[in-house]
Amino acid sequence: MPRAPRASHQVIVIGAGIAGLAAAAEAARCSLKTALFDDGLLGGLITNVGSIHGHPDTEGGTGADLVNGMLGAALEAGVDYQPGAVTALDRQGDYWRLTESSAPNVILATGAELRTLGVPGEAELTGRGVSQCAFCDGGLYKGRDVAVVGGGDAAFQEALHLATLCANVTMILRGLKPRARPAFVRQAADLGNLHFRWQTEVRRITGGDGVDAVQLQELNSGETESLTVAAIFPFIGLVPRTDLVTAGCHDGGGLTVDQNMHTDQPGLYAVGAVRSGHGGQIAHAIADGKTAALAIWMAQSTR
Ligand SMILES: Cc1cc2nc3c(=O)[nH]c(=O)nc-3n(C[C@H](O)[C@H](O)[C@H](O)COP(=O)(O)OP(=O)(O)OC[C@H]3O[C@@H](n4cnc5c(N)ncnc54)[C@H](O)[C@@H]3O)c2cc1C
How confident is the model at residue 250, as a pLDDT? Predict the structure, then answer.
């Protein structure tokens, strides 16, 4: 009787953001043969953040340093890191198969993309005044007026950074209350060059070689305003990258999981920003990754 083909790994982690790096390192430390794939921006969303908040080990440190440290730890633990996008994921028999690799367990850590505004002018002016990285592009607008859209932690964090460089920063919020942590809101309220437009939406971004202005609409009165700015930075939430999984387990946003980060498909786990109910911070992403890796190890060792 022909022998069933062996899997190349015991665990495959897709995505080397914070959740994937934590999952892969933990799995390898449990002596599980682990592969880790990433499609380019190693480290994911946190990589370009210049000053991390809310995580004790890394308070005020850079995202790049955190990612480098976590990658070093994963490699040292024996993770087989393979740069490259995973484009298909199929379950065949007892294994999940990628093009050249296979494993009984896959930890999906594909994270999320920053949501865009979807208004006229945004796509055309991206890279010429529309940016989603204040730490990368803020220096280009030194001494000028800029706008930030959103009311969560990321929007406030980036606006506070821009306020150290730019003449004026206007935050545009749809609601009346920010969702950001109180320390960020207090810091922002104390700055003379940080201004707010509450209950306001961006309707259009105008410009030529760069951004000239944003057209705003106050939601209660319907009144419109043209705000002259050289750049606009939207931080209005995340869109989970779930495209590798077509069946089951979506809840319309991220992937639904149980307390072990297991989806409703055999051997398929989802961790970090790709899963529904992700806490939003790197501490949550790390905890998710470790939880999935340990659940796989426990299942293997009791088999
Ligand atoms: C501007 C900003 C500032 C933030 N600041 C803080 C902070 O100060 N403190 C804090 O605790 N949190 C902060 N966060 C939140 C934190 O960044 C996220 O919670 C965390 O990074 C999520 O990690 P993740 O690994 O789940 O996803 P991601 O960071 O999105 O990583 C996913 C990775 O998977 C890769 N990938 C996706 N699809 C594929 C594929 N098909 N094949 C191979 N690879 C793939 C991506 O390229 C990426 O590298 C911030 C977020 C933003 C946006």
Answer: 66
